[in-house]
UniProtKB/TrEMBL annotation:
It holds the Pfam family ABC_tran. Gene3D superfamilies: P-loop containing nucleotide triphosphate hydrolases (3.40.50.300). CDD domains: ABC_Mj1267_LivG_branched (cd03219). GO terms for cellular component: plasma membrane. Keywords: ATP-binding, Nucleotide-binding, Transport. One of its GO terms (molecular function) is ATP hydrolysis activity. Residues 6-255 form the ABC transporter domain. It comes from the Bacteria. This is ABC transporter ATP-binding protein.
Length: 263
């Protein structure tokens, strides 16, 4: 994990007079699970939005695999291999699970798979079948084959979270940004999601940048953790060193016991 896949340098972001991020820098090693933690309003999601291209920072730069992506659009970053899930589910609730995941595959296709019957009489038919084969592998990996034809909006919250991860995986990403992937889940669902994230990282070699409030999960699966507080970086280090940092304990306002129990 010595090679760096993501370099964030001196990123600052403000909305009017409110500073969301101030001069934040960090490197994400290739093949790692990198977690961003901090109190509510610390700037965690704003940072993911800058990396994914949803927000444009006021200053600083973001490099992905050595390419400056600071001002690229989200679709262009997806083409380079950056996937994303959201804190609030962003699925197409009226579409099936399979079709939701195929949307994630869309940018890899040479032809638009929504074009209708004529599409099936072209060479693109073979292309879509190949993409569907890859999607089926993702469905099997996340153990959602039993709901592949179900309408996404009718699924339980935990299953919808899994479908959103599947759609991000369908991009064939080198880096996936996960915004609170376990929020709202029960213990069993959290354990399953943690296992999928670890397998995605270890078996598929995908680098993970994750925001998560469950400190037990963060400490168990992360290689590195960055702590934000009021838009500023407090520390970026291994889980053990982050846990022992007095500034981190102070930022969490009495959550010292929770941090220690998590480890």
């Amino acid at each position: 994990m010595s090679e760096t896949i993501l370099q964030v340098e001196n990123i600052s972001l403000a909305f009017g007079g409110v500073k969301a991020l101030t001069d934040v820098s960090f490197d994400v090693p290739k093949g790692s699970v990198f977690s961003i933690i901090g109190p509510n309003g610390a700037g965690k999601t704003s940072m993911l939005n800058c990396i994914s291209g949803r927000y444009q920072p006021n200053s600083g730069s973001i490099r992905f695999n050595g390419i400056n992506v600071t001002y690229l659009k989200p679709n262009d970053r997806a083409d380079l291999g950056i996937g994303r899930t959201f804190q609030n589910l962003a699925l197409f609730g009226h579409m099936t699970v399979l079709d939701n995941i195929m949307v994630g595959r869309h940018h890899l296709m040479n032809n638009n798979w929504f074009t209708g019957p004529l599409y099936w009489f072209s060479k693109a038919q073979k292309e879509e079948l190949a993409h569907r084969s890859e999607v089926e592998k993702i469905i099997d990996f996340l153990e959602i084959s039993h709901v592949r034809k179900s309408i996404a909006g009718n699924l339980s919250y935990g299953l919808r979270k899994r479908v959103e991860l599947a759609r991000a995986m369908a991009l064939n990403p080198k880096l996936i940004l996960l915004d609170e992937p376990m929020a709202g889940m029960n213990l069993e669902e959290k354990e399953d999601m943690a296992r999928y994230i670890l397998d995605l990282n270890e078996e598929f070699g995908v680098t993970i940048v994750m925001i998560e409030h469950d400190m037990g999960v963060v400490m168990d699966i992360s290689h590195q953790i960055m702590v934000l507080d009021f838009g500023k970086k407090l520390i970026c280090d291994s889980p053990d060193k982050v846990m022992d940092d007095p500034h981190v304990k102070q930022a969490y306002l009495g959550l010292e016991d929770e941090l220690e129990e998590a480890c």
